Amino acid sequence: MLGIIIGLVLLMFLAYRGYSIIWVAPICALVVALTGGLELLPAYKETYMSGFVGFTKLWFPVFMLGAIFGHLMDYTGAARSIAHWLTKIFGPKRAILGVIVGCAVLTYGGISLFVVVFAMYPLAVALFREANITRKLIPGAIALGSFTFTMTAVPGTPQIQNLIPMDYFHTTPTAAPIMGIVSALFMFGLGYAYLVSREKKFAAKGEGFTEPEKKASSIDETELKELPNPFISFLPLITVILTLNLEYLKWDIVVCLLAGIIMAMITNPKGYKGFTKTISAGATGSITAIINTSAAVGFGNVVRAVPGFQNLTDFVLGIKGSPLISEAIAVNLLAGATGSASGGMGIALAALGDKYYQLALDTGISPQAFHRVASLASGGLDTLPHNGAVLTLLAITGMTHKDSYIDIFVTSLVLPVLSSIPAIIIASLGIY
User: Fold this and answer.
1) Are 36 and 308 in contact (CB under 8 A)?
2) Helices 275-305 and 2-16: crossing angle, nearest 10°?
């Protein structure tokens, strides 16, 4: 049991220091194996790698196609066109709301978080400049729109954090829609209110917009004129969402993403010369994401193999109250330890998913509730300072942890963690 704790703490510490989880995870797994009495070489070559390969086999097509879809939407200008149209509708008077909604629409459409950040940042700068709002709030607004409710709560989202629980609880992407919608409104409403209050505090201190050092963040008017029609640009997003969720379709996510990719190319035929290069870039870019998550899952597989894991299981499952509470705690802690929503959830559900599914059958709580709580919890402690998406967001926006992490912390960590509470309360009333 102590070895598991040491391995988790070491994994979190090294990830926080910026070391790649690709080599950190197996080392931490070996610490767990050593203290758990396992032979080291078999623990790595068999136990660790079976978890690693198993996750890659199951989810690599989704990671790859999702990355290709996002790259195509970025390359064709469709993502920028949608974002520009939405921010233009909201205008500078509601600059923060415009950025949040723009990010949310793109994320719910299946575009990867990193592409959303690249697409929205220049537009956020333009809006904040016109509204004279400090750039320190841009990371918080983007994080709220991208890393929270459309990633884990809104029913039907094609993001990986909403798809992984399906295999464990035999559910669909729209599982527990009422729980999801209530939690989404909770995160969106309180997050937006928080950012508006922060805007007023900065304004009261006389702190407004300052020009970024990187002038590349400014919008080229010529480029905007060349963007595709925003309504046509919505078609690939709508294709993914509808094919995934319509009752008479409900295609596999792989087919849905393929349909979205094809639609993105059909609706932007002028860019055909760059399609091959863009697809290659997307496929290559997906490798790091899937390997990072698989490395975390491999670590979890070793944890599950040591004798102390039974004690850990008994502790987590012994938490008083609804088993949904213990599930939320387990997924949150592991997402925080790995700095990854999908990685933490992958570890937790690979280890405890079968037990929670059996609890669902035994207690009468719908498996849909377990699906939604797992998804919500994965988007909580994952955005600690060492999270890759947080580091990328700060780098792109030109902000530091000191400048903007407090807003990221509140909007994409505190509120998502708390969002499990209304969801669990609703589930306890038999409403899903």
Assistant:
1) yes
2) 150
